[in-house]
Amino acid sequence: MRVSPDILLYIKYAAAVAILIVIFLAPAWLARQTKKGKFDMGVVRIASWLFGWTGVGWLVALYWAVRK
Known about the structure:
Helix content is 81%, strand content 0%. By secondary structure, it is mainly α. α1 packs antiparallel against α2 and α1 packs across α3.
């Protein structure tokens, strides 16, 4: 059975996009898991969505998510 190289390429890109989405949404998920209040969780989500495209903004959102 031969698998088309195009199908393998599509699977590879779909997996890469899924991994990037999980990484991008990690701060909001961590904020929820650490039982932050609604306001704090909202701040983390907004910071992650607005500044998550920069590495520094994502790290700040991640820090806020795990900070006690």
